[in-house]
Design a protein that fits this description.
The complex is a heterotrimer of chains A (326), B (319) and C (519). Chain A is an alpha/beta fold. Chain A is built from 12 helices and 12 strands. The chains are: A alpha/beta (326), B mainly alpha (319), C alpha+beta (519).
Chain lengths: 326, 319, 519
């Protein structure tokens, strides 16, 4: 399968009065068509900012400082604002965590879907038709009635479906989902997961699923990227990662017991200490203070992504050399 | 609106107006002096007892307070707003002449100031902290700091000296007589009022806009690849509408009662001057009835604003 | 009393206007006039800050009302600019019975504006109305000396008085003793549609906007050259000046010296006229330490009156003694126990009364705010001047209504006052300084000598003797110093250079509009 998105050495910094704080530091990954890539990490690891950098939706004060983001054959970072906007929403779409606040409360739901379509060149009539189709695709019953409703008249699950409908109405090549199920209750979570997965399969859409919930990862992601302190620390096929994590952080997240389907793990409890402040990183590997496998070499230089077949991991210490202490 | 809502609204209004009438009545009577001292000043000392009594009877102030109040209230309820103690003119006819002037002034000032304020507020908030924002805020501060009478007097002086033109020299032309002549007289005072109006609306717009701009749905809208102007207007500004509409409504209501300085400088025969002269002359009937009418209009304006809320924000509809 | 709220606005806004109007060239002429059927030469617009309040001359007290109704109505006699009485509706008058009977010969062929012929019956009805309590006429007390009115024929009127009373004739010349049509009185239409014998007839009145008068073609003195006179209300004095500059008005009346100061250039002519009203520091001689004449005299001696005028009114005014009528023009300071401004003598007088730097005189003075432009400035200047001789003057600013209340009750040690003047000294001071006078309380002094002198002067029928007696009244007043008389302020008239024939009057009458022309 061809790569829909190729990110190489993406770096983003937040500009403060005292200087630029790097929050995404040379992250590289690829997403193939029809594939779900999960990006996993604690809060502060830079996963959301990576997604926003790809989308071109960084807040004021944050800026991409290096790297490339290729969607198909174009580097998005080299595009002007107008061209970027033409891509966003049409070929590239993002959905967010809280469906309640993600929709304009004063606009009917159907109009919000139509808006995207109109902005990307559809005629009024085509937009109306496609809106109803999209609402139907995401599993909403009675699309005409729903289209006329305001967000506050719908339940949380329905709202998230609407958000997804907005995102997929233009048949984007890539969908980025930033923890879209965290705010929903468990049953609804499963439904939404299933929905996105089905859309991916039906339309060959690439999906980046950002989460800290490993149960979700196991369920829908073919490949997984683990981030720590703004860097990718392990990347590979999900199954491989789960079976044999090559980085102590991943291992810590997973614990010694492979997760059962659908179980939610609180991984942080298993690793002592705090994630580092991106503005004050210790020299060498940023995970070293919390790492049970730390060596002297780790304090000196930060490890790049090294080949640790079948995945890649940013760790000086190969697994066979790991001590059993956890 | 439901029947219950309408009933409670009307009931509340009547209660408010009643309260206003009592307060005005009391405050007027509490002011030192009366119509006689207002008319005669120190010469009132020349009156002998019989003369004073005759004058008090003429002005209707020899009756006990409660009788004065209820007499007036009864008259108002039957549609008679009273009569000016001196000129004998009915308050209704005085208001019929003066009210349209003030209302027109308030409307013009709003039409000039509100859109300008909203426009400037969005202009400033779209690029917060940049020179544009600082410039707009500085201008607004100036507009608020300069008092109306300075602005108005300077405008009149400049028009006269530099252009040999005094806009209000001729007899006041009501709107019904000639739209162009009337606007020629009203545009300058309306512009003076619009300056402070725009400044206040600009500030509210700016802060409401800034707050709304951080909302999640704005990110969603940007994520759709919408043009920035559409995001600013349909998403941010529309949602910031409620506080902006509120401040516009408040300012308009304030203008209805507060145009007296501009009316003085530009010689407009509006309610502000009418009320001021009546207060100075202790012309009780005029003051009481006029204040009541203004209060009623204010309530009406509030009602309109409330209805507009419902149009603006469908969530309010269903409450 | 003059003045409106507009004054406060004017005062505040003047500073800004000063810079701009002074700098900009003011002689840019652009023809702005009023729309309407009148040609510029016959329409005459007068701008003023306040409107009349009613249409019944017998109840008129506000000066705009008096000014305006004075053009519509006539009196038996009227004063001219020298303060002497001359014929109006009465062509001759004579005294008999030691001044207790006055016989008037009335003018023939005069008609009211509605066509009714003028006869003695109209005068009698007017006087009866004035004396009726129910009318609430302010002139009533001045006419209380009339015991009977006879009308032997249509053109003769005889007044019977309690005693000779020269002030009475002046009282009859006032607008609020105007002659009304007896039919109007009977039909009770007096305050509704003005109908008089004056040079102008009533056209229309839109309250707070415009008042229009039309020339009365049948006026016995000859029809005025101005076909229409319009009084336009422009509440703000700087706006009036701007309008004059823009040639929107032919005439205006203002009272703020700071606005008058800005008149420059050829577009507007400023005419100043000393008023009959006078500025004074009234002293309450019934309270210590002002009950000691020496203390009052010290104050009267210490104050440099010219300095007050220069400070508060840009020098627009005239130092005055008690009597301000031009017909009785006496020295303003003769009678004072010193030369005005002699602080050394003032110090001596104080010391003699037991006061000095270690035992200062402390006085509280009320000052009226919001009525006329110079009140507070006067108070402050007097405060500074009296400080030099060790008198502490504390100012208590009061809004008009509270000021009036305290003034009438003499609830003060001193009062910075602007009191109305009149052509007759007895009218001015009888009510204060005669025993039983209606304003005896604020007079602050009882002096039987002064009372007797005033009454004698009023009853004196010989002009020369009367002149002497009033001079004695003036000097006595200055000697006793119940008050410190300061100055007569100027009334300001703004005229377009095309206006001819207008003569301002000390009592603010506009009667010379009957002879004014434009062109």
């Amino acid at each position: 399968m061809s790569a829909v998105l190729e990110v190489a050495e993406l770096s983003t910094a937040i500009l403060t009065a005292t200087g630029a704080r790097p929050v995404v530091r040379g992250v590289s990954f690829a997403v193939a068509a029809g594939e779900t890539l999960a990006i996993v990490g604690e809060s502060g690891s830079g996963k959301t900012l990576t997604a926003l950098s790809v989308m071109g939706l960084l807040p004021d004060g944050a800026r991409v400082t290096g790297g490339s983001v290729r969607l198909g054959d174009r580097d998005l970072l080299g595009l002007g604002a107008r061209e970027r906007r033409a891509v966003r929403g049409a070929e590239l779409a993002m959905i967010y965590q809280d469906p309640t606040t993600a929709l304009n409360p004063l606009m009917r739901v159907g109009a919000q879907v139509r808006e995207t379509l109109r902005a990307h060149g559809r005629s009024a009539e085509a937009a109306r038709g496609r809106t109803l189709e999209a609402l139907d695709e995401v599993g909403l019953p009675n699309p005409e009635r729903i289209a006329r409703a305001f967000p506050h008249q719908l339940s949380g699950g329905m709202r998230q479906r609407v958000v997804i409908a907005i995102a997929v109405s233009t048949r984007p090549r890539l969908l980025i989902a930033d923890e879209p199920t965290t705010a929903l209750d468990v049953t609804v979570q499963q439904q939404i997961l299933a929905l996105v997965d089905r859309l991916r399969a039906d339309h060959g859409m690439g999906v980046i699923w950002i989460t800290h919930d490993l149960g979700v990862v196991a369920r829908i992601a073919q490949r997984t990227l683990v981030m720590y302190a703004g860097r990718a620390v392990e990347v590979g096929r999900t199954a491989d990662l789960y079976r044999a994590p090559q980085h102590p952080y991943t291992a810590g997240l997973l614990g010694s017991v492979p997760p059962a389907r659908g179980t939610q793990r609180p991984p942080l409890a298993q690793i002592g200490g705090q994630p580092p402040d991106p503005g004050a990183l210790p020299p060498g590997c940023p995970f070293r203070p919390r790492c049970p496998q730390a060596r002297d070499r780790c304090a000196a230089t930060e490890p790049p992504l090294l080949a640790r077949p079948p995945q890649q991991a940013a760790c000086w210490v190969p697994v066979p050399e790991w001590s059993r202490a956890c | 609106m439901t029947g219950k809502e309408i009933r409670s609204r009307v009931g509340g209004t009547l209660l408010t107006l009643l309260g206003v009438s009592v307060v005005v009545f009391i405050v007027l009577r509490a002011l030192p002096g009366d119509a006689i001292t207002a008319k005669l000043g120190t010469e009132s000392g020349v009156l002998d007892h019989a003369q004073r009594q005759a004058l008090e009877h003429y002005y209707g102030i020899d009756q006990p307070l409660l009788a004065q109040y209820f007499g007036w209230l009864r008259a108002v309820l039957s549609g008679n707003l009273g009569v000016s103690a001196d000129s004998g003119q009915s308050v209704t006819s005085m208001l019929a002449a003066a009210l349209p002037v003030t209302v027109e002034l308030a409307v013009l000032a709003t039409l000039l100031g509100a859109p300008a304020g909203v426009f400037l507020g969005v202009l400033a908030a779209a690029r917060p902290g940049r020179p544009r924002d600082i410039g707009v805020q500085g201008a607004a501060l100036l507009g608020l700091a300069i008092p109306e009478f300075v602005l108005g007097s300077v405008l009149v002086a400049v028009l006269a000296s530099a252009f040999g033109y005094f806009p209000n020299a001729g007899a006041f032309v009501p709107l019904t007589e000639s739209v162009s002549a009337n606007l020629g007289q009203m545009i300058y005072p309306a512009a003076v009022l619009a300056v402070a109006f725009a400044a206040i609306v600009m500030r509210t717009t700016r802060s409401a806009y800034l707050e709304m701009a951080r909302a999640d749905f704005v990110r969603t809208a940007q994520g759709k690849g919408l043009a920035p102007s559409r995001v600013r207007l349909r998403h941010v500004l529309h949602n910031a509408g409620i506080p902006i509409l509120t401040i516009i409504g408040i300012q308009f209501g304030y203008l209805l009662g507060g145009t007296v300085i501009v009316e003085q400088i530009f010689a407009l025969p509006g309610v502000g001057r009418l009320l001021l002269n009546a207060i100075l002359n202790h012309d009780y009937a005029v003051v009481q009835s006029t204040v009541l009418v203004i209060a009623a209009i204010f309530v009406l304006v509030n009602l309109v604003v409330d209805l507009l809320y419902r149009v603006l924000d469908p969530r309010v509809r269903i409450s | 009393m003059q003045g409106t709220w507009g004054r406060r606005v004017a005062t505040a806004s003047v500073a800004l206007s000063l810079g701009l109007t002074g700098a900009a060239c003011s002689s840019r002429s652009s023809p702005t006039g009023d729309a309407g059927g009148q040609t510029a030469s016959t329409q005459f617009v007068i701008a003023r800050t306040g409107d009349i309040d009613l249409l019944d001359p017998h109840r008129a007290t506000a000066f705009q009302t008096v000014q305006t109704l004075g053009l519509i109505y006539g009196n038996l006699v009227k004063a001219d600019s020298s303060g002497k009485l001359h014929a109006d509706l009465a062509t001759e008058w004579s005294y008999a019975d030691a001044g207790r009977t006055v016989t008037f010969t009335l003018r023939q062929g005069v008609r009211f504006h509605n066509g009714d012929p003028f006869t003695s019956a109209d005068v009698k009805a007017s006087i009866t109305r004035l004396q009726d309590e129910k009318t609430s006429a302010v002139a009533r007390s001045n006419l209380s000396g009339i015991t009977g009115v006879d009308t032997p024929d249509d053109h003769t009127l005889v007044l019977h008085l309690k005693a000779a009373d020269s002030a009475l004739l002046y009282a009859l010349s006032a607008v609020n003793a105007a002659v009304l049509d007896a039919k109007d009185i009977a039909a009770d239409t007096v305050g509704k549609k003005p109908n008089g014998t004056g040079p102008f007839s009533f056209g229309s009145w839109q309250q707070n906007r415009d008042l229009t008068l039309k020339a009365s073609q049948g006026y016995w003195g000859g029809a005025p050259k101005l076909a229409t006179v319009i009084f336009r209300i422009i509440p703000d004095e700087p706006s009036i000046l701007a309008g004059m500059r823009a040639h929107s008005f032919q005439m205006a009346t203002i009272s703020d010296p700071t606005v008058a100061q800005q008149v420059s250039g050829d577009a507007v002519t400023l005419v100043k006229q000393p008023a009959l009203s006078y500025h004074a520091l009234m002293l309450n001689g019934r309270r210590a330490p002002l009950d000691k004449p020496a203390v009052r005299q010290a104050i009267a001696c210490a104050v440099d009156r010219q300095q007050v005028i220069t400070t508060v009114a840009n020098g627009d005014g005239k130092v005055t003694g008690p009597i301000t009528s031009p017909a009785f023009d006496y020295s303003a300071t003769q009678g004072l126990p010193c030369t005005a401004g002699d602080t050394a003598k003032a110090g001596q007088l104080l010391a003699g009364a037991g006061f000095g730097p270690d035992h200062p005189v402390k006085l509280r003075a009320i000052v009226e705010t919001g009525e006329y432009a110079t009140s507070v400035a006067e108070g402050q200047n007097l405060q500074a001047q009296l400080k030099a001789i060790g008198i502490q003057l504390t100012l208590e600013q009061e809004a008009t209504d509270s000021y009036v209340k305290r003034w009438l009750a003499a609830d003060y040690d001193a009062a910075v006052a602007l009191n109305g003047g009149s052509y007759s000294p007895y009218t001015m001071y009888g009510r204060y300084f005669t025993t039983g006078g209606s304003l005896g309380i604020p007079a602050g002094l009882d002096s039987p000598d002064l009372s007797a002198l005033l009454n004698r002067a009023n009853q004196e029928t010989d002009d020369a003797a009367q002149h002497q007696l009033y001079q004695q009244v003036q000097e006595k007043l200055l000697e006793l110093s119940p008050w410190v008389w300061l100055f007569r302020g100027d009334d300001y008239y703004l005229l377009s250079p095309t206006v001819h024939g207008f003569v301002p009057m000390p009592n603010q009458s506009l009667q010379y509009l009957a002879e004014t022309s434009v062109g």
